[in-house]
Amino acid sequence: MAPPGNSHVYAVDVRYLADAKTRRQHEKAVGKSPAALYRDGVQVYRANLPVAFPVPGGVIEVATSAFGLKRLRFVEADGREHTLRPDPRSQEGRRARFGRRFPRASTVVGVVSLAVLLVALAVSLLHGAEALTRIPPVAAHIGTFTSPIHLPTWAKITLGGAGFLAAVERASRLRYNRLIDSVAS
User: Is residue 2 one of the residues assigned to a domain?
Assistant: First the structure.
């Protein structure tokens, strides 16, 4: 996005799953950071996340969460914000195209993925509380807790896989919810 009269095209490349150690090794090897700003196909900035890249008329803000982009927007000098469009060939771009072409199906997929994430979170919290209260010092102070949900191994694996797919779907929607996405991460 550019101010009127400016014909430059800006693109942001975000490298997911780059932790601090990977980032340092990658920067030494190739000289790249997790986020890079390109103007007309030429890299002009690179930085660690979160970052605000200066561009004519404002800044491009980029931040990630554990499951994808938290923020990718152009903020004008007067404070107005514009969400940037994903590359049509990227996972996010394909998800956006699916949402435009099949809005009802997209809504159903979004609701199902949210439900799967919440169920997986609830089951995980119950099992975590049960495991925590089996530690002898904890059990001595607060007692033990037995989870009311006991799943067979195949159901645990299925729920874990479905939770992973639901997290990927939420990440590809480019919609960040502070409560849901920070708890899920």
Answer: no
